Amino acid sequence: MDKIFDSATDCRLLYNSPAQNKSTLIVLRSKLSAIAQRLNIAESKREGMLLVASEMLSNQIKHADGRGLIQLWQQPGPVLDILALDYGPGIANLRQAEMDGFSTTNTLGKGLGTIRRLSDESFIYTQQENLNQVKKWSGAVFLSRFHVNNKAGTASKDDLSGFKVGLFANSLADNIHNGDRIYLQKSGKKLRWLHLDGLGHGKQAQDATDHLAVHLAHCATPDALLAAVDRQLVGTRGAVAIIGEIDLAQHKMKMIGVGDMHAHLYNGEQLYNVTFAPGILGREHRTPPLFQADFVKECMVITASDGIRRNLDIGNFNGLFNQPPQLIAYTLGNVMGRISDDQSICVSTIG
């Protein structure tokens, strides 16, 4: 059976801290070292990771006055991500800033180049302050990704070839229980995912969304999958959900859902909103319609729980939706997330 990824185990926020001053670095390095050792990452790569984290934190202190955050994430692959997001003025000329020797703070100016060289993958997104237009966010986002080697010592593979996926799942107040859940499976040329939000939050909400992955493997269509989930949720607290499917062979995208969640389609130019039938799975809900769309090349699908504000707008995030899905998920999750609820977002593209 094709592997099914589960956000509860495969998308984990391991560390989250404000980047206020240099004392943050001591705790960050200690936490990162412990995580890297537990994941059996080679010592040489661990040293590079520590240097990358130091450069990221240093950038935030210098350029954003410590108004930012540093996060460590484990994602499918497995991979370890170091994320730095700040609320500063943004970077005026990113190409120039990445050149060794360029500095606006009278330092050696090797930080961004170092991050690029030492990471297995790295991505940067920035948006400058605009006094003529009020935006939800300005600043910079740095993502440094390190692949965790398997027992044979070779780079990990996430079994999602042909697709690129970004996941973000974080619980209310960093609770150990998260009622938001994303199950994800690639089978042949199809990518399918089940995105759930258990009613309320805490352990009961998480219990409602447990043990539903099996339906991805046994149900042939999105509407059959939704019906199976609906039946299993009877007697629980209940949940709302979106089921998405991208079929490369048929050049089609399908979605069906129930409840207060939201989805968005991006075709390279515009962002379209998708709504779903009202109600709660396992209780009462209206019959949901199946949404279908054809695609040729460009296709991005974003699904999100109500823990993510639904008023996503290209104008508020210039150029973001052309970035890699994981960078999009981290940016939207942190900037658009509600602190009063569990938060989750899934960004899927062809690539």
Rg, nearest Å:
20 Å
Give the rounded overall mean pLDDT. Answer: 90
Q: Low-confidence spans: pLDDT under 50, at least 5 residues?
A: 101-109
Q: Level of helix content?
A: 25-40%
- Net shape: globular
- Total helical elements: 9
Tell me the number of structural domains: 2
Number of strands: 16
CATH superfamily of the largest domain: PPM-type phosphatase domain
List keywords for this structure.
alpha+beta, Heat Shock Protein 90, globular, 9 helices, five-stranded antiparallel beta sheet
Give a description of the structure.
By secondary structure, the chain is an alpha+beta fold. It has two domains: 11-147, Histidine kinase-like ATPase, C-terminal domain (Heat Shock Protein 90, 2-Layer Sandwich); 163-350, PPM-type phosphatase domain (Phosphatase 2c, domain 1, 4-Layer Sandwich). The chain contains nine helices and 16 strands. It has helices spanning 7-10, 23-38, 43-63, 94-97, 111-118, 203-209, 214-218, 222-232, 325-336, and strands spanning 4-6, 12-18, 68-75, 79-86, 121-127, 139-147, 163-170, 180-187, 190-198, 239-247, 252-258, 262-266, 271-274, 291-294, 300-304, 343-350. The strands form three sheets. A six-stranded antiparallel β-sheet has the order 1-8-9-10-11-14. The chain has a five-stranded antiparallel β-sheet with strand order 2-3-4-6-5, sandwiched between helices. It has a five-stranded antiparallel β-sheet with strand order 7-16-15-12-13. A hairpin with a 4-residue loop joins strand 12 (262-266) and strand 13. 42% of the residues are buried.
